Known about the structure:
alpha/beta, 8 helices, Rossmann fold, three-stranded antiparallel beta sheet, 12% strand, 8 strands
Amino acid sequence: MNHDGRFAPSPSGPLHAGNLRTALVAWVRARAKGARFLLRIEDLDPQRSKPEHERAQIEDLRAVGIDWDEEPVRQSERHDLYAEALAELERQDRVYPCWCTRAEIREAAQAPHGPLPEGAYPGTCRELTGAQRAEREREAGRPPALRLDARSGSVDDFVLRRHDGAYAYNLAVIVDDADQGIGEVVRGEDLLETTPRQLLIADLLSLPVPAYVHVPLVTDDEGKRLAKRDEPGIEPEVIDRIRAEAEAMVRRLDP
């Protein structure tokens, strides 16, 4: 079994304790199996991704003792891979343009849509005729987003590429994991709901699927999920606590 692992932060701010704990769990599990561990920078969003955040995240990872086996890769440098995957889905007639605004999506998503999860996109633009699509594009005045025609009772028609040309996380992450030979993905349980989307893409593209381990989120004293910290740097006592929590979690996951 392939136990190669990875950590893939988004450089939109400094890491918090939960991010570092997840990274440590992934690193310990990979190293315990003698497997590779890779670092990927998920900088798909050019507006939110900042080089200074990337540098701070790498410093924090090193501060808790994490290393990696190859030079980090950046999703911003891998657009050819995503374009190739998108083209294959288009060849399968599984992609359609969407001009819906966020307000329109919120309004449409409030209606019941059978087994689809709450807030799912109901496929408003899927059945538009050629003339209707041309009209929507004139009205919108911008390029469309591209959505997957999921044809699934449990997965909605999610975005593959945004209207500004940025590729979506659900497409990029499964392509990257397959390309890098990742065998196990450790991530927060907040990403559990995205897994069916990624499994669907993997199936359509005949890509290998890693094993997924979703770990509980770290919360504050009020039970709220931690957000990225305002300032880089992390205190030594916090590092010790994160290491202890990660080691305990690894023992629970793999006794």
